[in-house]
Amino acid sequence: MTKLKTYYSCQTCGYQAPKWLGKCPDCNEWNTLVEEKISEESNSRMDPLGLEINETPKPITDISIDEEDRLTTNIGEFDRVLGGGVIWGSVVLVGGDPGIGKSTLLLQALNNLGLSEKKVLYVSGEESAKQTKMRGNRLGVSSKNLYIVSETSLEKIIEVIKELKPHVLVIDSIQTIYTSLLQSAPGSISQVRETAARLMYMAKKTGVSTFLIGHVTKEGAIAGPRVLEHMVDTVLYFEGDRGHPYRILRAVKNRYGSTNEIGVFEMKDSGLEEVLNPSELFLSERPINVSGSVVVSSVEGSRPILVELQALVSPTGFAVPRRTTIGVDHNRVSLLVAVLEKKVGMSLVNQDVFLNVAGGVRIDEPAVDLGIVVAVASSYMDRPVDPKTVVFGEVGLGGEVRGISQGGVRIKESAKLGFNRCILPHSNKKTFQGKEDIKLVGVRSVEETLEVVFS
Q1: Same domain, yes or no, for 296 and 269?
Q2: 175 CB-contact burial (10 Å; exposed 0-12 / middle 13-18 / buried 19+)
Q3: Which residue, 128, 313, 366, 452, has most beta carbons within 10 Å?
Q4: pTM for the full model?
């Protein structure tokens, strides 16, 4: 008889202990250790395809590469985030909140690949084949090369792959797949890690491009061990509010392309539709001549995006004023508010400060510092900013305005959208060689910036 080994595994970080513990020693979470059993036979690493593949080391000069190294899905924003298309044999992890559009996007991409004579397989562990067909009808899926199977057993999925030999595989979702070698329930740490490892092994050996759809936790991270993100080649996150039609697909890891690249989509009745000019979209409903509103230029990956920052400063009714932010780093805003108090003399100690990035975008780069400062000052003084002015630059603790990267790309995007004045760091103005029809105003400090904006 096969011996079963019992251990306790943390469902948050994957830590394993020989006995149950109330608190995980690794991630300090309470009541997350669950009993799991594993057979001794499962400890041996078996070829998931049932084949013995013995590879010998080769000189790198003798390894051949196919000319057609990428598959294009004909969804421009999706291909852009992937780095130009799908790499043969790559493993891509797609995460996001429930109902945000992960399955919809991949079903549309598989349909386009199927129409280009590529054989694709969609494995649904959450829906039946008829339910997937109903969704496909709504999306206009009509490719005969798109195969659907509803299965959760990894061994049976492998058999289907060996028989069908698809070019692209989608697993929806990885938390529903299980292997019979483990006794734990589907979705547990052990099952997610083991099934993902075997699917990755299969992808590398056979060249099948594989997409894994993953659920996210309340904190927004992929459910399961962080090692899952380290194993795959690319990690994509869907961002956006289900109450709004716009979705942002962001690459946080990509071995074959740029990281922090984003793709913008709009959710419609017929599925996800790509947005080719996101800057124009995010600024379409911008209020004119309203205090606290300013346009900033941000670069996501290789794409410049103009977004609107909205600030609201009002007297507080509490002993400690509130600092509430949506779309930007909370600590960064607190730092910039302190710079305004110390270097400019604004009394914000008894004021609540609310800051929002319109459109549901999240911006992490320091180039929006100057925009945050101008938006907060505009709301505090109740003086609107010229609607044809765009602002960008990094702010230091001494109140100085520092230069940022890719200043020329930001200026050209601003001029293309009709802005006639750009307030930017003085160092970026000196190095700009273009001849765009836009007035450039270089500033060296926060005080100088406010004088230029509100003069």
Answers
A1: no
A2: buried
A3: 313
A4: 0.80
